[in-house]
Structures are given as structure tokens and as C-alpha cells.
Design a protein that fits this description.
Blueprint: H1 3-14, H2 18-23, E1 26-32, H3 39-46, H4 59-70, H5 77-94, E2 97-105, H6 106-111, H7 115-130, E3 134-135, E4 138-142, H8 147-153, H9 155-158, E5 165-169, H10 181-189, E6 193-194, E7 197-198, H11 204-214, E8 218-221, H12 229-237, E9 241-244, H13 246-251, H14 263-268, E10 273-275, H15 280-283, H16 287-296, H17 302-313
Parallel strand pairs: 1-2, 2-3, 2-4, 4-5, 5-6, 7-8, 8-9, 9-10
Helix pairs in contact: 5-7, 11-12
């Protein structure tokens, strides 16, 4: 990382200059692929205006209701999914994302014709928009899935080495963590990074238990770990990284404000954290803006935010 890059990032924060922040190398490691594009990009491609999201959603259910009503009807089916995938890579190019982890579900893979067709399509977008980005695709399963059925066909998706990580999302405490062990054992055989969505609405103890039971390397969200000194110490001691999404937390009501976001407590307790978008199309805050919002709220200093940026890049 050059001094010029560091200066650009610092200047962008201090001067409230999004253009300088856009030029600074960043990561996005918690990115749902079908919701990873900007609304303005999608509007240009479909030729119509879309309704802006509310400032605050009524929880996850309210978020999904809004998305189903205001976005999906205008970019639905296979074509809509593929278009939103493309927009996610276009955003990585625009925002100088140098490390990108984007998740994909098996149903989406099958919609486009299976693993080979999916791989060709996604690699094409990667080459077209952001060839210099380190792209780490993530295979994701919903928390209501039939684990036995999924693990029996899992190898066809991961044997080739395309997917670099595993995630389970779609609601916490739907099934016990032990239920997902077959998926995580299979992922371990292929040296995949092991993640799960936990500690967003769930407790600090849920975060620790998920790490213990599933042998996690990282956690998607995990913001509620800040409520327990013991859990924070456990995460720091075991070098478990939390991939946090500030705007998602604020707009879903899991954080009171940017100023009071638990990222500061987690960071100051020695936990490695990253800053990510979650669902850009829904929460309407791209990655450079996430850094700016936290800086302007006084949550973290420019030096702390730069350290977090470097963590995401793997420095």
C-alpha cells in the first residue's frame, strides 16, 4: 500500500470528498450478489425510476417486503438476477474494490443452467468490469434448507475450487448450529473460509457458540458480540474476523445510529473487523459512503478507519 493511497483515503474522509474515497482501494466481503448493485445503475439499465428505500425498515421482514414490491417486479426472473449480478461487478469497478467476496445460492446457479454455465457467466463479468479485483465467490445456503439434501449435492458446486467460502444466511436461530455441521465439514475438506450470519439479531453468546460448533474463521455481522466482554475477548483471542455492515444495522434497527454503532467497541477490544455493504440495492449506501458515514458521526478516527480498510484488503 503506497503513501499516496493512504493520503487519498485520509483526504477523502477529512475533506468529505467521495471522489477521493472512490479512488482508494477497498474491500467488500459481505455482499449479497443479487442486491449488490446501485439503484441508479439499475434504473439506467431498465429505463425506469425505482422507489428509494425508506430511512428505516421494519426489520428483516419489512426489508424483504419492500424489495419484493418495489424492486423485483422490474427486474425479475433469470434476466433480472443476471442483470443485478452484472451491476454488482460494475459497482466493484466504480468503487475500486480490490477484494470482493460475493455470495450466490445454489438455486441461482441452477437457474442459469448449472455450475459450468454459472461459472462462465460470473467470470465473464469479473473480466469485463474488475479483472484486477481479487474475487472470492461465496456459496451460501438459507438457514431453512434441508441440510442432508444440500450436502449430498454440494460437491458439484465446490469440487472445482471456484467457491472460496461458505455461508448460511436468511434468519438466525431457525435451526441449531449443529444442523449445519455437514455443510461446514464438507467446506473444510475443500479449504473454504467458513462464515455464517450470526449476532445481527441474535445474542453475543450465539456468536461464540456458532464459532465453537462450526469452527468458523469469520462471522458475517456479529455486531451483538459487543454486548459481552467475554465474547469479545474470545473473538480477539481466536482471531475471528467480523464482517460488519453499518448501514444495514442502522436501517434494520439493529444499531441506534452510526455514532453508536458497535464497530467502535469491537475494534477497540482488539477484534479484526471489516466494513461492507450487505445489500447495496436495498440499503442505498456504497462502500466509500460507509466509511464516510462512520467518520462524520465520530464513531472512528481516520486512522482507525484506514486500519479497518487495510484489514479488509488483507494487509
Amino acid at each position: 500500500m503506497t503513501a499516496e493511497t493512504n493520503n487519498l483515503f485520509y483526504e477523502g474522509l477529512i475533506e468529505n470528498n467521495p471522489d477521493k474515497l472512490l479512488k482508494s482501494p477497498k474491500s467488500d466481503l459481505h455482499n449479497h450478489s443479487t442486491k449488490g448493485c446501485r439503484r441508479v445503475w439499475l434504473e439506467e439499465r431498465i429505463g425506469r425510476k425505482l422507489v428509494a428505500p425508506p430511512e428505516i425498515f421494519e426489520g428483516l421482514e419489512g426489508m424483504q417486503t419492500w424489495f419484493t414490491k418495489e424492486i423485483k417486479p422490474f427486474c425479475s426472473g433469470i434476466e433480472g438476477i443476471v442483470l443485478r449480478w452484472e451491476g454488482s461487478f460494475a459497482e466493484a469497478q466504480r468503487n475500486n474494490i480490490k477484494r470482493l467476496s460475493m455470495n450466490f445460492g445454489v438455486e441461482e446457479i441452477e437457474l442459469v443452467g448449472g455450475m459450468q454455465q454459472f461459472k462462465d457467466l460470473i467470470e465473464g463479468f469479473h473480466r469485463t468490469y474488475c479483472m484486477d479485483t481479487v474475487f472470492e465467490p461465496e456459496l451460501t445456503y438459507v438457514s431453512r434448507c434441508d441440510v442432508d439434501a444440500e450436502v449430498n449435492r454440494m460437491e458439484q458446486y465446490i469440487a472445482g475450487g471456484f467457491f472460496k467460502s461458505l455461508d448460511v444466511c436468511g434468519g438466525e436461530n431457525i435451526q441449531p448450529f449443529e444442523a449445519f455441521l455437514p455443510l461446514y465439514r464438507k467446506a473444510e475438506q475443500y479449504h473454504m473460509i467458513k462464515r455464517i450470519h450470526v449476532g445481527e439479531s441474535g445474542s453475543a453468546e450465539d456468536v461464540k457458540r456458532a464459532v465453537d460448533v462450526l469452527g468458523l474463521d469469520e462471522v458475517h455481522h456479529g455486531n451483538n458480540a459487543a454486548k459481552s466482554d467475554d465474547v469479545m475477548r474470545f473473538l480477539a483471542d481466536n482471531k475471528i474476523k467480523l464482517n460488519l455492515c453499518p448501514s444495514s444495522n442502522v436501517k434494520l434497527g439493529y444499531a441506534d445510529s452510526y455514532k453508536d454503532h458497535p464497530i467502535r467497541i469491537l475494534y477497540e477490544n482488539g477484534i479484526k473487523v471489516t466494513i461492507n455493504t450487505d445489500d447495496l440495492l436495498i440499503f442505498d449506501s456504497s462502500i466509500e459512503n460507509e466509511y464516510l458515514l462512520l467518520y462524520q458521526a465520530g464513531t472512528l478516527s481516520a486512522e482507525q478507519l484506514d486500519d479497518i480498510r487495510r484489514t479488509g484488503l488483507g494487509d
